[in-house]
Amino acid sequence: MSGIFPGRFTAQTNEPFVVFLIGMRINTWWRFDKWVPVATAMGPMMRTLYTHPEKGFLHSEYFWNMHGPILVQYWRSFDDLEEFARHPSDPHLAAWKRFNQAVGADGSVGIWHETYMVNPDQYECVYGNMPKFGLGAAMEHVEAVGRRHTARSRLSANDGQKEV
């Protein structure tokens, strides 16, 4: 149980942040030549982000569903995320160009992302008997007690309103 925090915890921040969901969908499983390069392109990006926190990347969680990988990322700001995506010396731009050349619109591999800009008074989370995870690993990890005990009170605690 190393790394487990017994009890209930939440994440706390007074700063806005970005939640970025990104993934791929393998539409044609037998086309290894199409989807393996796309799947392996994320490794160099994540290594760069974890070794250069000044780029604004805070944390990521990785999942796999029936059709491919999904990453949930937390960023300090949209500007930081966009700078990483567009900067020629970062690994994303080259991977994006390779995808468009190798796959383009042939339908063998799908890619997607969603970006959410979150103010400090517009989120709520709880983690019970978990290691630091998700937003709780990206931000300050605090006990969910007192004004942080319920979902409603956590939202109220974030925006300074009185708990009802």
Layout of SSEs?
Layout: E1 5-12, E2 17-26, H1 32-40, H2 42-51, E3 57-65, E4 68-75, H3 78-86, H4 91-102, E5 109-118, E6 127-130, H5 135-138, E7 140-143, H6 151-159
Antiparallel strand pairs: 1-6, 1-7, 2-4, 2-5, 3-4
Offer a quick outline of the entry.
This protein is 32% helix and 32% strand. The chain is of the alpha+beta class.
Count of domain modules: 2
- Classified by CATH, the class of the largest domain is Alpha Beta
Report the sheet with the most strands, covering strand number, pairing sense and barrel closure.
4 strands, antiparallel
Structure class: alpha+beta
Q: Calculate Rg over CA atoms.
A: 18 Å
CATH architecture title of the largest domain: 2-Layer Sandwich
CATH topology of the largest domain: Alpha-Beta Plaits
Provide the β-strand percentage band.
25-35%
- Termini separation comes to 36 Å
Strand order in the largest sheet: 3-4-2-5
Count of helical stretches: 6
Helices and strands, in N-to-C order? EEHHEEHHEEHEH
Q: Helix share of residues? A: 25-40%
Strand runs, count? 7
**Could you say which overall geometry the principal axes of the C-alpha atoms support?**
elongated
Spans of at least 5 consecutive residues whose pLDDT stays below 50 are 160-164
Roughly what is the average pLDDT, rounded to an integer? 92
